[in-house]
Amino acid sequence: MSDRLAPTRTAEFEARLKKRYAAERRFKMAGLGAILFSVGVLAFLLVTMGFNGIGGFQRAEMDVPIDFTQAGLSGDPALLAQPDAAQTLEAQGLPSIVDFYAEQQLGSEGAAQISASAWRLVADGIIADPTILRETVTFSLPASPKLAAGLNGEGAPEMRALAKTLSDEGKLETKLDLGFLERADATDPQQVGIWGALKGSMLTMIVTLLMAFPIGVMAALYLEEYAPKNRWTDLIEVSINNLAAVPSIIFGLLGLAVFLWIFPNMRSAPLIGGMTLALMTMPVIVISGRNAIKAVPPSIRDGALAVGASPVQVVFHHVLPLALPGILTGTIIGMARALGETAPLLMIGMRAFVATPPQDFTSPATVLPVQIFLWSDEIDRGFVERTSAAIIVLLIFLLLMNGLAIYLRNRFEKKW
Amino acid sequence: MSPAILLVLALGLGLAGWLAARARAWTFRRDSSTGRIAALPVYHAWYVALWIVVPVLVFVGLWSVIAPQLISQSVLSSPAAADLPAFGFQRDAILSEARSVASGSAKAVFNEAANGLVEPYRAAMARYNVIGVLATLVIAFLAGAWSFLRIKPDFTARTRVEKAVMTILLLASLVAILTTLGIVVSLVFETFRFFGMVSPLDFMFGTHWGPDPMSNPDSPDGSRYGAIPLFWGTIYIGAIIAMIVAIPLGLMSAIYLTQYANPTLRKWIKPALEVLAGVPTVVYGYFAALTVAPAIRDAAFAVGISNASSESALAAGLVMGVMIIPFVSSMADDSIAAVPQAMRDGSLAMGATTSETIRKVLVPAALPGIVAGVMLAVSRAIGETMIVVMAAGAAANLTGNPLEAMTTVTFQIVAMLTGEGSFDHPATLSAFALGFVLFMVTLGLNFIALRVVKRFREAYE
Amino acid sequence: MVTVVHPNLEDTDAKMSARDVSVFYGDKKAIDDVSIDIPTKYVTAFIGPSGCGKSTFLRTLNRMNDTIPSARVEGEITLDGEDIYRSRMDVVQLRARVGMVFQKPNPFPKSIYDNVAYGPKIHGLVSNKTETDEVVEKSLRRAGLWTEVKDRLDDSGTALSGGQQQRLCIARAIAVDPEVILMDEPCSALDPIATAKIEELIDELNGRYAIVIVTHSMQQAARVSQRTAFFHLGKMVEYGRTSDIFTNPLEKRTQDYITGRYG
User: Fold this and answer.
1) Domain that holds residue B255
2) Which residue among A360, B35, B293, C184 has its CA within the 20 to 30 Å range from the CA of C125?
C-alpha cells in the first residue's frame, strides 16, 4: 500500500474534484433558482394585482353643481325620513333636475355620460342632510362605464375624445372611491362595491367557525385522549385524514345533495355555505388539534392524575388550555382556507347576483371569492380593475389571518 | 328566525337550570353534617343544565327541518292555494315569494298570484312559531324538573356529567364518519340515477362529451356522455403539466431550504412559501386567465402558431403547478427532515459533496415520502376547480396539444350544476357521476399516499 | 495546566498532529488547548468520562464539525504536514483520506453492494463494473464480512444485524482506501460478540491505516490500542503508550478514572 500514492491524492482525483465542485455549484444554483422562481411568481402576482387593483379603488367622476333653491323640491323632513324617500324625490322630478344641471355644466354630450343612477347619489345626499335644499351643492357623480373606459384610453374613439376634452376642462377626474368598500354588486362597474360580498363572507365564516371549531376540538380531544384503539377509531382516523384531502368541490356536491335537500328554501344562504365549509374545515382543525394535544407532555397528565383528577378534569383543566394556542393556529389556517374557497359555494348556488348585502344567515348572499369569480367573467373592462381590487381586499384578510397564525405559533410554541 | 329564537330560549333555560341546581347543591353542602357531598355543586349544576339543553337542542334541530314543511303543507291546503299552477318552476317561485313577504324579508310581491298566499303563510308561521316555543318550554321544563329532582347529597353528579361529556366527544368524532358517509351515499345515489339513464359503458369509454341540458330528459343520447376527454384533460393538466412544473421546483426548493439556506433566509422564505400556498385558487384562476393565458397565446403567435387559443391547457397547468409548488415543497421538506442525520453524516464523512449526499443518499432515502407527497399533490391538482374553470376552457378536446383548450372533470361538474338544466336531467346528474369518479380517484391516491407516509415515518423512528 | 505526555514515546512519524486546538460551540468551549501526534502505524484510543470532549475532538480531525453551524475550531491540525483547516486542503479530499465510523451503525438504505461501492463511485475511483466488483469484494473481505454477505449483496444494508451493519460501515470507509480511520465509539451499540468481532477487525487493520478510536470502555482501549489519550472536561490530561497509561499513570485524575473512581 505504501509503495504508491493513495488513490485520493492523485492528480486525476484533483481534476475530478474540480468537476464535482462545479456540479455542486450548479445544483445549489438550481435550488436557489427554484426558490427565487416561486418567490418571484408570488411577487409578480401581488404586483400585478396591486397595480390593477389601485384603479379599482378609484373611479371617473364629474363635478356637477346643483342649485337646489331653483329646483323646487319640497324639503319636508317628515317625508324625507320615510324609508321610501328616494322614490318620493324621484316622483318630484329629481332625475331630470340632475340631468338639467349636468347638461349646463358638461354640455349635452357629457351629460349623457353621467351614470344613469346618478340621481340616487343626490337623493342620498338630500336624505342625509335636507338643509342642502336651501343652497347650491356640488356633487361628484360617477361617469358612465364607457366614458370611464375612454378616460383610461380604451374603448370607442369618440368616447376617448370626449373624455379628453372633459378632463382637459377639469370636469372629469379620477377620484378615490372608498364607496367601493360600502356598496354591493351592481351591473355597472362604476357602481359596484364589495361590502355585500364581504358581509356574506363574514356571515358564512361565523357559521363555519361556530360549527367546525367545537366539533373539531371535541373530536380531537376524543381521538387523542380517550379513544380506545380499535377498528372504529381507525375508521374515524382514516375518514378524517381523507376528508382533509378530498377536493373541495366534492363538499359542494355534498352540500347540494344533502343540505339543500333538507333546507330547500335556503339556496345561496350563508347558513348552508357555512355548514358546507364547516365540514371541509373540521378535519383541518382535528388534525392540527391532535398534533397540539400530542405535544403536551404526558408528565402533566400524570401529575394531574396523581392528585386524583378524573380523566375529564385532566383534559379540561390541563391538556386543553396548554394545547389551545396550537389548536387556534390550526383553526385560523383552516378558516383562512375556507375564506378563500370558491368551488363548493358555487355548487350550493352562492353565485346569484345579489345587489343588497345579506340581512341575516338565511337571506341570499354571495361571498368575496365568488364575487371575484363573477366579476372576472364580466366583459366590461371596468370590471378588471374592480376584480383586482376585490382580490386585494381578500388577500389582505388572508394575510392578516395567516400573520395572526404565525404570530400565535411563534409566541406560544413551547419546547417541552 | 324562529330557530334562532328557540336556540336562545334553550340556552336561557339551561342557564336557569344551572343556577337553580347549583343553589340547591349548595344547600346540601351547608346542611350535611360532614360538609362533604358526592360531587361539587357545579357538577350538579352542569347535570341539570345538560339535561335541559341537550333535549331542547335536539328538538330545535328537528323542528327547524320539519316546521317549514308543516307550514307549506298547511298553506297548500288553504283555499287560496287551489288556483296555483300544478307544478314546476312558477309554482315554486310564487310560493317562495309569498313566503318571503310573509316573513318580512321582502316588502311586496311582484307576482300578483302570490298576493293571496301571503296571509295564509303569515297565519301558518305564527301558529307554528307558537307551537315551537311552547314545545320547547314543555320539553325544557319536564327534563329540567326530572333531573332537578334527582340531585341529592349523595348523587354522583360528576361521574354522570363526565359520562355525558365523553358521549358528546364521541359523537363529535363521529361527524367525520358521517361526512364521509354522506359524501359516498349522496354521490352513489345520484350516480345510480344517472346510470339508469345513460349506460356506464358510454360514460366510461365514450370519447365525445357534449351533454345538452335542454334535450328531452327521457331519451338521453348516450353518445354525448363520453367522459374520456374529461379524464384526459384532467390528467393532462393536473397530473402532467402541473407536475412538470411543481415536482422539480418544489423538490429543489425544499432541498435548498433544508440543506443550503442559512437560517435568516429560511426565516423569510418559508413564510413566503406559506403565503403562496395560502393564495385562494380563485386568485390563481384570475391570474391564469388575465395574465398567463394571453401571454402564452401571444408567445405562440410569435413563434408562428396561429391557431393558439386564448384558453389553453398549458396556462391552467402552469398556474396550477405554481400553486402546488409550496405543497410539494413542504411534503419533500418533511420527508427529507425525517431521514436521520446519521445518514447525512455518514455520506459527508466519506467525502461526498453536499449535492452528492442529497442526490445519492438523502433523496433516495426520502423517496417513499416524496412519492407520497407527489401523489397527494396530484390528488389536489386533479380536484382543483377554479383555475380550470377560469382558464382551461369548456371544449372537450381529446388532444395532446397543450395550446388547445381542454376541459376537466371539475370544470364540467361546475358547468352542469350551474347551468339551467333541471335537477332530474341526465346532464345535471352526470355531475354527480363525475364527482363520484373524482372522489374515488382522490380517495385512492390519498389512502395509498397516507399509508406510504406512515410506513416511511415508522421506518426511521 | 498542560497535558502530561509520557517521555518514552519513540519518535514515530506522525500522520496527524494537533497543535493548541480549541473547539467552541457558540460561546461554550468544548475542547481546550489540545495538542497530540497521531502515529501512522498504531491504534490510538481516546478515553474519558462522557461529555469530556473526546468525540468532539475526533470530529475535528476530518472536519465533521463543519456540519454544525455554531462550531468553531482554533489552533492547527495537520495531515502529513498540511494544515487541514487553513491550507488549500479540500474538505472532500480530506474526508476521503480520513474515513469515519460512527457510534450508531448508519448504513445507507441501499443494498450492501451499493453501500460499499458508494465511496469509490462518488470519488470516481472505479470506472467499470469489474473494478467496482473488485473493490467491493476486497473491502468486504477486509472488514471480515465477505463470507457472511457474499450471497446477498443485493439485500438492503439496513437488513443486517447491528454488528454486521457496523462492519459494513467499516467496509464502506475502507473502500476509498483512506489513510486514517476515525472510529467514534464503534461498539457502544453492539452486543459483546459483535464487539469482539469489531475489535478483531481493528487488530487486523492496524498497521495498514492510522486508526483513532474513541471509547468509553477502558478494557477496550487496553485491548485494541497502542497509544491512549485521556480526556477530561475538554482537556487532554495525559497521553502515552497504552500499557503505561493503564499501569503507570502520571496524573492523579487518570489514575482515579482507570481505577473506577468516576466516569
Assistant:
1) 222-459
2) C184
